[in-house]
Amino acid sequence: MDTGSAYDVIRLTINTILIGSAPVLAVALVVGLVIAFVQALTQIQEMTLTFVPKIIAIFGVLALTLPFVFNTLHRLSDRVFDLIVSGGV
């Protein structure tokens, strides 16, 4: 295995991680910003108000995007296993 193949596998893995986690992270960011904005407007500084809606939103998005994440990881594993079988790794 040469360094080019190793860099290719590492690049594919990092790209897959970023694409697979993007929907959940984006929703957590948006929900967190909305809650912070509401807290700033109403001056309610309750700690559970920050976490409970964010956790509910994250689990909801995770349940909806689980097939997408699975397909993304499946494509990466197929690519890596094909490289192993062909002797590229």
Question: Could you describe the 3D structure shown?
Answer:
- The protein is mainly alpha-helical and 89 residues long.
- Helix content is 89%, strand content 0%.
- It has two helices and no strands.
- Helix 1 runs antiparallel to helix 2.
- The protein is elongated and about 60 Å long.
- It starts with a helix and ends with a helix.
Put the structure in a nutshell.
Helices cover 89% and strands 0% of the residues. The longest helix has 40 residues, at 3-42.
Shape: elongated
Give the strand tally: 0
Distance from first to last alpha carbon: 5 Å
Low-confidence stretches: none
This entry's quaternary arrangement is single chain
Radius of gyration: 19 Å
* Estimated helix fraction: over 70%
- Which structural category do the helix and sheet elements fall into? mainly alpha
Sequence of secondary-structure elements: HH
Q: Give the strand content.
A: under 5%
Give the averaged pLDDT, no decimals.
90
Give the topology, please:
Blueprint: H1 3-42, H2 48-86
Key terms for this structure?
single chain; 89 residues; mainly alpha; 0% strand
